[in-house]
Amino acid sequence: MIDTHCHIDYPQYQEDFDTFIARQKAGGVSKIIVPGVSAESIQTIKAVCQKYPDYLLAGIGLHPTEVKEDWQEQMQQIANELPKNYIALGETGLDYHEDITFKEEQKTVFKQHLKWALQYDLPVIVHSRDAVEDTLSCIREVDTNHTLQGVFHCFSGSYEVAKQITDMGWFLGIGGVITFKNCKLAEGLAKGIPLDFIVLETDAPYMAPVPNRGKLNESIWMCYVVEKLAEVYACSPEHIIAQTDLNAKKLFRLGN
Length: 256
What we know:
It contains nine helices and eight strands. 40% of the residues lie in helices and 14% in strands. The chain is globular, with a radius of gyration of 17 Å. It has one domain: Metal-dependent hydrolases (TIM Barrel), CATH 3.20.20.140. The model has no long low-confidence stretch (mean pLDDT 97). Helix 4 packs across helix 5. Helix 7 links the parallel strand 7 and strand 8. The protein is α/β, with parallel strands linked by helices.
């Protein structure tokens, strides 16, 4: 299993980090992608990824809820880092859920990430919350030749939205939310979203799947997501793992 979205650089994991990593490896997790969320996270991500090169893989970006008064300074720090040893831009995107004070700045920041992705030929890790139409609009505005690839991480939207995303050739990051009691995501995927466009993720430390909901999330718990996806696609868990690993390797250009 490849975890395409895990904030393993967060403080919650640092006390017994090596034991945590050993547990993920023993549980069948082959790689973990660590997305950036701010200029500050550049250093914390470097610190963990340098401990386990080829196992922990770094993204770089400015999360939309981190777009505040100092956004230009943060973006300059990110620009200074590129491209170096990053496998993706993000996580980046739009989030209108709680605070839209910097709504226009979020769009500016997101579009700059998309431009960097084109410049450096990198995939994009997208965060979109209560903003899917604007998110898709920004992508279409920048990616006029339809060459960008990316993933809408922590996807929980409708079939109609999923189809718009996959019709662009982009991927859906599916995590613990698919196991939640009132989530309609499984039904939406079953309407006709190909498994070829699904990658696994945790969004750890958040979004732990049932039966561990509310706990500090771990990549090994993607097994519960795999079980649910196997129901949706009427296939074995082994097939889900094999196909989502292949999808992640394609998107992020990972070797074996």
